[in-house]
Structure formats: structure tokens, C-alpha cells
Amino acid sequence: MLFALVVVFAGAFAFLNGFRDASAAVAIAVRTRALTPTVAVLLAAFFNFIGAALSAALALGVSQTWVRLPPGVNGLSILIACLASAVLWGIYTWWRGVPSSSTHALVGGLAGAGVASAALGGNDVGGVDSSLLLQVVLPLLLSPVIAFAGAYLLVWPATWAARYTPPNVVNGRSRRAQSIASGAVAFAHGLQDGQRTGAVLILALLASGLAGEGAMPVWVALFPAVLLTAGTLAGGWRISYTIGYRMIRMDPLRGSIAQLFSSAILLIGAIGLYWPISTTHTVTSAVLGSGTNQAFRATDRKVVIRILMFWVLTPVATAATAFVLALSLSPLGNP
Questions:
Q1: Is 282 a member of any domain?
Q2: CA 312, CA 179: separation in Å to the nearest integer?
Q3: Is residue 286 part of a domain?
Q4: How far, in Å, CA of 65 to CA of 323, rounded?
Q5: Which of 187, 196, 220, 241 is a good FRET partner for 226, with 20 to 30 A between their CA atoms?
Q6: pTM for the whole thing?
Q7: From its phi and psi, is residue 293 left (phi > 0), alpha (psi between -120 and 50) or beta?
């Protein structure tokens, strides 16, 4: 029963992930008219599915390096509280139209549920102090800084190279580059976020004793891919509107720089370093970086401050919610 609940909440998390984070791949491409909304969503859904389906091996590696859950009911309860808090926060931030990280929400929920388990005298979540800090928290904090700074700096050589080119030619080339970059961001998002759901399912299988170390059932590879794709097709235009229209004014050249650079960060993080990097934070920071490097003020500071506040609140809110949920589930492990 508890394992089935983990699967249900993991599916909801994956669906909501695609529903919300599709905005990162399509918002700027739609804003600069590089793609129509329908084509952008279909493109994002296709590459999301491919990336998530290929993330199975990465999910296995993440589940072995992230954390160690206690076996049995205790471990499954931690996962349920963690996923439920991440889903609730994801729905709330979507309703508010704020781009926030599903990965931060998941990590915060895992930490909060683990603390609750330890406070009740149960087994805590192993590896949080070392692997979670080095493999999860550090990359999540560094990626927005690198994305902002890199995109900001890349605007100068790009504008210098295009200084004698007619604006309509620059815009046309940039829109074509952005079409490619949107697919690359969606593919990288599938790689990054597909492995998160897959890793949770593997941890649940281990905790319930339904699979051994190093096992990867086929359905675990396909389940996140299908749900991420379904969520992407459903679309979360509230967040797309915030990124593309409210947060900043963006031209095609700067939009292509932001998406190309953020896709490179996400792909290197997923394939080269095996680091979980937030698609939302990376793309949003790159968009801010490239858009800020203009001769006139292009950003809405109130919107940016609001987004940053939600970024800080995400792990805190999900940790607190997961803590309460884990306490409420504690009788299941102590009949």
C-alpha cells in the first residue's frame, strides 16, 4: 500500500514537473516569436520524453550516491512526505505564476522528512551530511550564478560579431538558433528531472525490498518519461508568461544566448558531472543575465525580487511541510 502511494505521488511530481518546467524551454522562444506556442510545446514534449527515457542509467547512479533510506515502512513514509510536500509547493508556485525548482523542493522535503524520522527515534536519512551537500546543494546553488554570469558575458562577443549585420538578419538567425536551443533545453530537462523521479522510485523499491542494489526495472525508466511528457503537453502558461513577458524584455539574440548557454550547463551537469541542476533556476538566471546586459533597463525588479524570495523559501517550505507530514505518518511505522 505505501509503495503504491509512493508511485502515485512520484507520478504526480513528474507530471507537475513537466507541467511547470516546460515554461523554461518554451517561454523565451514564444516571446521572441522563434516558435509558435503549439510547436514549442510539442517540441518540448518530444525532447523531454527522449531525455527522460535516456536518464535511466543516471537515475540508478543518483539513487546510489544521493542518500540511503531506512528499510520498510519508515523509508517509504519519508518518501511519501517528501513527494507530497514537493507536489503541494509546486501547485502553489504554479498558481502564483512563479518559476521555482522542483529539485530544490524535493531536496527540502527529503531533509524535512528525515529530520522528523530522527526526532521520533527512527532511522534518519543516511548520507545527507556529505553526499547531499556536495552532490545536490552545491550544484543547485552554483548553477544560477554561473548561468547569470556566463550569459551576461556572452552578450558582448555576440553583439560585437553582429555589429555590421542588419537587425532583421540577426533576428532571423537568432530565432533559428533559439528553435534548436529550445529542443536542447527540453532534452536536458528530461535528462535532469527524469532521473530525479527515477531515483525516488528506485529508493522506494529498495526500501520495500522489491528490488536489489543495481536493479533497474523497465517501468521505472518509462514511468517518469511518460508523466513528464504528459505534463509538458498540458502546459503551464502562467509561469511562461512570467518568464517571457513580466520578468524581462528580451530580443531574439539575447534569447538564443540564454537558452544555448543554459542547455550546455544542464547537459554538462547531467552527463559529465552527474550533478542534479535545476532547469528552472538555470534558464531563468541565464535569461536574466543576457537580458540585463542591455543599454536600457529591461528587467522588472519587483518580479525578480519576488522570484528570488520564492527560490529561498522553496527548500524551507517543503522541509517544514514534509516534517509535519512525516510526523502524521509516523503511526504507520509504530503500530
A1: yes
A2: 31
A3: yes
A4: 23
A5: 241
A6: 0.88
A7: beta
